[in-house]
Design a protein that fits this description.
Layout: H1 29-42, H2 67-72, H3 92-108, H4 114-121, H5 126-135, H6 140-157, H7 159-166, H8 178-186, E1 189-194, E2 200-204, H9 211-216, H10 218-246, E3 252-257, H11 263-283, E4 288-294, H12 298-307, H13 313-318, E5 319-321, H14 324-334
Parallel strand pairs: 2-3, 3-4, 4-5
Antiparallel strand pairs: 1-2
Helix pairs in contact: 1-11, 1-12, 3-5, 3-6, 4-6, 5-6, 7-10, 10-11
Length: 363
């Protein structure tokens, strides 16, 4: 296995969550199911986090992309996405908060690194700033702190370059690298297509993930973190592009397929799941408004019934736990069969979508 560059160097400090336990110090099935459902409910509903980072890359310039661009991945997707807006009408209170955040950013933007300035300018449209306003705690400076930290993190971690390198549609290229091949063969997330309401939908094949294999190879495990960053960026870009096209806030649909999931696999997968939660919380706010956990065994449903009452009502409404028998009916209400991937019961071949293969390390 070739050497993979770690996403974080030794000086980088990631946020820790006092609310996130280490549930497998004493392994128990109930703790496992509870934690997985809790993590799914948290990934896209952020609170502000500050991040440190290593030296920045070269300066980048902005570009505009459509949903089709994001799902097909143009030749050079390494520049940040900017969207052009006209005729946007946000609710009055939200518009005031967005305008305030923009003024706060503009007041201090000149003191930021040049590359971070350009990254920030690509995210200063009303609909993107609205995600930071609604995704941060209700304190005036929290949205600013979250936006500032997220822009610096994006530049210092090379998010746009990682996205460009590891976009799943690169899998058809003739000259893919060892890093790309490992991600395209073994990562377990991707984009399925477009739902009935015109927003992209994304799939996480949690039951196919070889978490035990990732845990046994630290370099590959680190590469899977890169893959997660690329996936989160694809979801965030898709949400932004869908919003620009609709001239209103739009969100993506997430399908989490847990068919074949085991407690043994999840025990090994907790570090990667928690990493995804931390990165998503801090840097990719408000990407989805619907999560469908499909082919769910009874223990997941039981755990959801326990944890749901303590979650905010809005979060409860966004998460749907669906049994195997109800999966196809539920998904086809949201996605036309011609757009639904075959392994989910639809007609669309996997090869036609930006999906990775989710193969085990040892076939």
């Amino acid at each position: 296995m070739p050497h993979f560059q770690p996403l974080f160097n030794s000086t980088h400090s990631t946020a820790t969550f006092s609310a996130i336990p280490h549930p497998f110090e004493a392994v128990a099935p109930l703790a496992c199911g509870l934690f997985v459902v809790w993590a799914l409910s948290r990934v896209w509903y952020p609170s502000s986090r500050r991040r440190g980072a290593p030296a920045p890359p070269e300066c980048v310039v902005v570009r505009s992309q459509t949903i089709d661009d994001i799902l097909s991945c143009p030749k050079d997707a390494s520049r940040p996405l900017s969207v052009r807006l006209a005729g946007i009408a946000l609710p009055d209170a939200l518009q005031l908060s967005v305008d305030r955040l923009r003024k706060q950013v503009e007041c201090e933007l000149g003191d930021w690194e040049l590359a971070v300035q350009q990254e920030a300018r690509a995210h200063l449209d009303d609909l993107t700033l609205a995600r930071y306003v609604t995704g941060a705690p209700p304190m005036r400076m929290e949205a600013l702190a979250m936006f500032r930290a997220a822009m610096a993190w994006r530049v210092h971690q090379g998010v746009n370059s990682i996205y460009n390198e590891l976009h799943p549609m690169r899998k058809g290229s003739a000259d893919i690298s060892a890093r790309q091949k490992a991600v395209f063969d073994h990562f377990y997330c991707g984009a399925g297509g477009v739902a009935r309401d015109g927003v992209p939908y994304f799939v996480q094949r949690l039951g196919r993930a070889d978490f035990e294999g990732f845990a046994s190879d630290p370099e590959l495990g680190e590469l899977m973190k890169h893959a997660w960053v690329a996936h989160l960026e694809m979801v965030f870009r898709a949400a932004r592009a869908a919003s620009a096209e609709a001239k209103q806030l739009r969100y993506t649909l997430i399908i989490v397929d847990v068919v074949g999931i085991t407690l043994r696999s999840l025990r090994h997968g907790m570090p990667l799941i928690r990493y995804c939660s931390e990165v998503g919380l801090a840097n990719f706010p408000e990407g989805t408004d619907r999560i469908f956990v499909v082919n769910a065994p009874s223990i997941i449903a039981a755990m959801w019934n326990l944890v749901a009452p303590i979650l905010p009502e809005a979060t409860q409404k966004k998460i749907n736990i669906v049994s195997s028998s109800a999966t196809l009916e539920t998904l086809t209400r949201e996605i036309d069969p011609s757009e639904l991937l075959k392994f989910l019961g639809g007609e669309k071949p996997e090869e036609q979508s930006p999906m990775t293969r989710a193969l085990p390390l040892k076939a």
